[in-house]
Amino acid sequence: MELELKDDDEKKFYFKPFGLNNLKGKEWEGAWRDVKWLMPWIKPYSRQGMVAFILFITSVLIAVLVPRIVAFIVDEVLLAKKYSFPQMASLLGILVLLKIVSDIAFKWKVTKIGQSISKKLREDVFNQLGSFPLAFFDKNSSGRVISRCVNDVSNLSTFFTANFFSVVSDLAIITGSVIFLFTLSFKAALIVLVAMVPMVIFMLNVSMAQVVWGRSQRNILSRLSSHTADSMNNLAVLHSQTFSSKWVRRHESLQTLFANTVLRNIYVWGSFSSSHVLVMGLTYAAVIILGAHQLKTGDITLGRMIGSFTYVGLIFGPFLDITEKLNALLNALGSVQRLKTILPAKPEAADSVLAASDATMPTGPIVFKNISFSYRSDTNLFKDFNLELPEGEVTALVGRTGSGKTSLAHLLLGLYPLSAGQIKWGEEDLSSFSAMKRARWISHVSQDLFLFTDTLRENLRLWRQEITDDKILERLKLVGLLEKVQSFPGGLDMIVRTETLPLSQGEKQLLLLCRALLQDPRLLVFDEATASLDQLSEEEWLGHVSKLFKGRTTLFIAHRLETLKLASFVVVLENGKIKKTFRKEVGKSVNEDQIH
Question: Could you give phi then psi for residue 147, rounded to 5 degrees?
Fold first, then answer.
């Protein structure tokens, strides 16, 4: 899988401006492949799509028939008096009413189908992101990832709900109107066809130009979103440092780029709309002059002349809408290309239930066997690395910054893929564990607390409904936070956020431990969980957790010698290699000489 998301290449798109030959060949094949890729999400709604198609055909047929009926009413009812006017007017009224009803029903049905498909796509994109290794998020800014989840799915939502059927409807109306216009006035139809040629060429080129500049606009917007997110996350740093003005100027330059791109699109669209009005006006004038001449010579009736004028409006009116929607359609196909880098070829069922095989508790020591790993392809952090974590014991990792302690924990958690080797838990390869199995049997406690904007209850049990309030209260009592939580307004029902939680740093660490223990894990990983605590708070924290390690395999990344008291096995790392290992008695202190 490609770990880095690429911005759109402005030089690569389906059709090139001023190149009508490009409407054939590989470009169409690429577009068709992207449409086929979407079929697994579309197929479940095929029956509803057939209903929408019938409504669509009904609406188009009535739209192109009405001017022909009006011409008939003028000639045969009003002038020739061959038929009753009330009857024909009633028929026309019924047709108009039927068109209104079919239009409303069609739009409702298409919107419902489109939103259902978009909902499924959005869920699949979000779920897929959760399965990616941490390296994916290291290489892609938050703005770019959010753009995939929100903007690209939104483009496809518009594609499904309106644009596709709107373009097809407009094309069908234009085609039908030209055909019926030939039955009313052959010469008027020829004038319209001649006028359509420059309109079609201009429409295609404007659409392609808007696609290119639209992609440039989205790329800049993605950079702007990422820059804004970075600014909000680092306001304290920006305010305290002298380079905040440079950061602001960088933001202003991105804003200027974005504004210029938008203005360029507006200019192109304005040029086309003005040209459209001019060509349509000239065509109207030509048809009126022709009609007046034919009416004078008796070559055409008044009704047919009125019908011809009406068809000119039906033919040229949709061009603006088609140009706008065609741009959106091509953007949607571009969104498909970007989503293909994230989603698999077909939607998969959500892995929300623990499989029977995953429910079996893994046993045995954890063995790192000849593993190799690098953040960059040119530099190995670990190479042919071997280590065994004893089952049911506390293993402490110590070493200088950059020695590989946290990286080793991340590999154990499956956050990064191995370059070579394997990590085995007993007889099982850790790479074969599903995400649900990892979450069930491995818990991670870091030094940073992150809370979702939800109740304290859901933040502790992480939406596992089988975890009861009694179990939550029991674990809170175990870590010494029960009285504190009960003093909160609403208790477990209190809505919390990371920034507003009324707890000290040490209490937040205990809350993290409570969350981890609620999963009843077989393996606990502490990644410098006490790094932000003072020594007194750390001793109190260790007093709470020491009795919870019994029977659990525990990996402790230590930053103080005091933390090593809990360990029975100590591993000293240096530059991704094991410098030394030794065993010790639990509760006994470790001195500097033993480490170095």
Answer: -60, -40
For 413-432, the pLDDT digits (tens) are: 888 888 889 999 988 888 88
CATH code for the domain of 457: 3.40.50.300
Residue 31 lies in a domain: yes
Question: Based on the domain organization, do 280 and 424 belong to the same domain?
Answer: no
188: which 2 tokens?
A: 């008027």
Domain that holds residue 392: 366-595
| pLDDT at 87 (0 to 100) | 79
Q: Bridge-partner residues for 425, per DSSP? A: 366, 428
Confidence of residue 370 (pLDDT cuts 50, 70, 90): very high
- CB count within 10 Å of CB 16 equals 18
Cβ count near 437 (within 10 Å): 20
Handedness of CA 314, 320, 323, 328 (dihedral sign): negative
Identify whether residues 372 and 332 lie together within a single domain. no
Q: Could you read off the pLDDT of 203-229 as tens digits, one per residue? A: 888 777 776 776 677 677 767 777 676
Q: Which of 289, 311, 255 lies closest to 64 in space, CA to CA?
A: 311
User: What pLDDT, on a 0 to 100 scale, did the predictor assign at position 261?
Assistant: 80
**Tokens read off for 37:** 């890729």
Is 354 a member of any domain? no
What is the signed CA dihedral for 364, 365, 371, 374, rounded to 10 degrees? 110
User: Which CATH number is 156's domain given?
Assistant: 1.20.1560.10
- What's the rounded Cα separation, in Å, for the pair 234 and 242? 14
Task: Answer for the pair 172, 61: CB distance below 8 angstroms, yes or no.
Answer: no
Q: What is the 3-state secondary structure (H, E, C) of 403-426?
A: CCHHHHHHHHCCCCCCCEEEEEEC
What are the two backbone dihedrals, phi and then psi, of residue 466, each rounded to the nearest 5 degrees? -75, -15
Q: Are residues 300 and 389 in the same domain?
A: no
- Are 146 and 281 contained in the same domain? yes
Phi, psi (rounded to 5 degrees) for 551: 80, 0
Give the largest Cα separation in the chain, rounded: 116
**Which residues is 366 bridged to in the sheet?**
389, 425
What percent of the chain shows pLDDT beyond 70? 82
Neighbours of 499 (CB within 10 A): 6
Tokens 């077989």 correspond to 522
Q: Number of folded domains in the chain?
A: 2
Whole-model pTM: value is 0.63
Beta bridge partners of 422: 369
Cα separations in angstroms, 557 against 466, 512, 527: 31, 16, 5
pLDDT tens across 476-498, in order?
887 778 888 888 888 888 887 76
Q: Do 201 and 71 have their domain in common?
A: yes
Residue 525 CB: number of other CB atoms within 10 A? 23
DSSP 206-217: HHHHHHHHHHHH
Amino acid in the structure at residue 447: Q
- Angstrom distance (rounded) from CA 131 to CA 126: 9
Q: How many CB atoms lie within 10 A of CB 574?
A: 15
Is there a contact between 411 and 422 (Cβ–Cβ < 8 Å)?
no
The full 3-state SS of 248-316, as one line of letters, equals HHHHHHHHHHHHHHHHHHHHHHHHHHHHHHHHHHHHHHHHHHHHHHHHHHCCCCHHHHHHHHHHHHHHH
Whether 321 and 372 share a structural domain: no
Backbone angles phi, psi at 582, to 5 degrees: -160, 155
466 and 504 inside one domain: yes
Other beta carbons within 10 angstroms of residue 55's beta carbon come to 21
